Amino acid sequence: MSGVQDQLEIKFRLSDGSDIGPKSFPAAASVTYLKESIISQWPKEKENGPRTVKDVKLISAGRILENNRTVGECRSPLCDIPGGVTTMHVVVQPPPLEKEKKVINDPKQNKCVCVIL
């Protein structure tokens, strides 16, 4: 019986309403492992897919999951339904644009201008 409890069925809901999964994960799996799984299974036809684990935020039961936690630690009481599938929401943070980085580092922007009337 404990072997069944150590596995969780999880599906990942993307922002457009489509899903990845469901797939079975051990309760000892880290949130980082889940994110790596999402990146490897990301639909090729979708634009702006995540490139790294840092680009992905997972939300379960209204909480953003931390990378260093395990799935078992993040489990909500609703996940204890036998045979139930847990839905986690996936939020992808787009990488900053190169143009924005240049504007921030532009020394002209940091000048102070005073006008005396």
3D structure, described in words:
With 117 residues, the protein is α+β, with helices and mostly antiparallel strands. It has helices at residues 2-5, 31-41, 71-74, 98-105; strands spanning 7-13, 19-26, 56-60, 63-64, 85-92. It has a 5-stranded mixed beta sheet. A hairpin with a 5-residue loop joins strand 1 and strand 2. Pfam families: Rad60-SLD_2 (PF13881). This is Membrane-anchored ubiquitin-fold protein. Keywords: Cell membrane, Lipoprotein, Membrane, Palmitate. InterPro entries: MUB, Ubiquitin-like_domsf, UBL3-like, UBL3-like_ubiquitin_dom.
Mean pLDDT across the residues is: 80
How much helix is in the residues? Answer: 10-25%
Total of DSSP H or I helical runs spanning 4+ residues: 4
SSE topology string: HEEHEEHEH
Largest sheet: 5 strands, mixed
Strand arrangement, major sheet: 2-1-5-3-4
The radius of gyration computed from the alpha-carbon positions, rounded to a whole number of angstroms, is 20 Å
Provide the β-strand percentage band.
Answer: 25-35%
Secondary structure category: alpha+beta
Taking the alpha carbons of the first and last residues, their distance comes to 81 Å
User: In total, how many beta strands?
Assistant: 5
Low-confidence stretches: none
From the spread of the alpha carbons, the general shape counts as elongated
Descriptive keywords:
single chain; 117 residues; alpha+beta; five-stranded mixed sheet; 5 strands; 23% helix; 26% strand; elongated
